[in-house]
Amino acid sequence: MPEFKIQHVTKYTYDGFVRDSANKIILYPIVDIYQDVVKHTLTVTGHPQVDTYIDYYGNEVGSFTYTEPHNVMVIDSRLSVNTHQRPLPVDNIFAAEQWNELFNLRHIVPYIDFLKQEYFEGLSELTPVVEQERKTDDTPYRTALKFSNYVYRNFHYIKGVTTVETTLDEIWKIKAGVCQDFAHLLMVMLRLVGIPARYVSGYICPNRDGMRGEGATHAWAEAYIPGYGWLGIDPTNNCVANENHVRLAVGRNFSDCSPVKGVYKGSSGHKLEVSVSVGYEDGHTHEEKKDTFIPSTTSVTEPAKPRNSYARYMEMIQQQQQQQQ
After folding, report:
1. Residue 216 near residue 289 (C-beta atoms within 8 A)
2. Cα–chain-centroid distance for residue 265?
3. Residues 113 and 167 reside in one and the same domain
4. What range(s) does the Transglutaminase-like domain occupy (predicted)?
5. CA–centroid distance for 240 within its chain
6. Which of 23, 96, 138, 190 could connect to 142 by a Cys-Cys bridge, CB 3.0–4.6 Å?
7. Has residue 69 been placed in a domain?
8. Within 13 Å, how many C-alpha atoms sit on residue 200's CB side?
9. Taking 60 as the threshold, does the pLDDT of residue 282 lie above it?
10. Which of 1-5, 7-11, 57-61, 286-290 has the weakest average pLDDT?
């Protein structure tokens, strides 16, 4: 039963003074038989009142408005959480029976949401790949693991080539991305064969095992397995998500689980910094800090413009090729 101490700091620095910053935060860990929250403190600049509610997907969500003029806003979440190892699926039910059960779920709430595909032009290219990876006698569990292995083997884990606004088609073209991109691709593959799939946001705390996404916000997918329930699968590390994964929220995609997002009145220019540190039982701490100009908070005076991550990636490749010549 490992215990992790996690600090997640979100800092906005604005070009000028802004006001009426209204935000929605999903920084409250899921509580169930596999995850206990020992302590959680949340501090926001200006100490506005944070109201909480449970959303459609069962996540605890906070909302607040910081009305006073300010040029910096910090959201500091600190938590201690215990995780418990969960058993793997036994997978002793005939494959045909399991696929038939999934087929019968296609018109039942909430599975409808987790079977609906997002718009993806590359679907015609991905479909034959899915059929090739999937074998007739594979159970949903074995199919999900094969799909995770495909994403892990065929996509490069490269930080900075994508953003939260990067489309599935861009990810498919560059064959690269980070954890949220890997999770979205795995969900597309699962939904193509009728396996309900949902997005999970949280943290990975591997105790210095060198796993991708360590000491930072992380994302993976959950597949619904007949006779078992929701099984977390991490395609970034090609493993089943278990006691080293701390869950914050679940939803159809990243948008449903975004840790912080909102709007404000004032100058549209601002910088977003996110840092996450994970403390282990032995006192070791791993920290990662990310600076980005891609806002999850949007000015009401000028909408944020998405960056073309595919163009940036190709420019990087061209620069590398020029350096090698």
Report:
1. no
2. 28
3. yes
4. 171-237
5. 15
6. 138
7. yes
8. 25
9. no
10. 286-290
Q: Rounded to two decimals, what is the model's pTM?
A: 0.85
**pLDDT-derived band of residue 284, with 50, 70 and 90 as boundaries?**
low
Unique residue bearing structure tokens 């977003």: 272
Are 237 and 155 in contact by the 8 Å Cβ rule? The answer is no
- Which parts of the chain fold into alpha helices (H)? 95-103, 123-133, 140-154, 168-174, 179-192, 254-257, 309-324
- Which residue type occupies 127? T
Backbone angles phi, psi at 22, to 5 degrees: -100, 125
The pLDDT assigned to 279 comes to 80
State whether residue 213 is helix, strand or coil.
coil
Same structural domain for residues 100 and 237?
yes
User: 3-class DSSP state for residue 239?
Assistant: strand
Q: Are residues 123 and 232 in the same domain?
A: yes
CATH code of 30's domain: 2.60.40.2250
CB-CB contact of 8 with 42 (8 Å) = no
Task: Count structural domains, the chain.
Answer: 2
247-286 burial by CB neighbour count: b if 16+ within 10 A, else e? bbbbbbbbebbbbbebebebebebebebbbbbbbeeeeeb
Domain that holds residue 240: 95-254
Percent pLDDT > 90 in the chain is: 75
Q: How far apart are CA 16 and CA 265, in angstroms?
A: 11
Is residue 132 domain-shared with residue 247, that is, in the same domain? yes
In a domain, 263, yes or no: yes
Q: How confident is the model at residue 209 (pLDDT cuts 50, 70, 90)?
A: low
Same domain, 227 and 212: yes
Are 116 and 252 in contact by the 8 Å Cβ rule? The answer is yes
| Ranges assigned E (strand) in the chain | 3-25, 35-44, 51-54, 60-66, 70-83, 156-157, 176-177, 197-204, 217-225, 229-234, 239-240, 245-251, 260-266, 270-279, 285-292, 297-299
23, 119: one domain: no
How big is the CA angle at 278 (ends 274 and 282), to the nearest 5 degrees?
Answer: 160
**41/167 same-domain check:** no
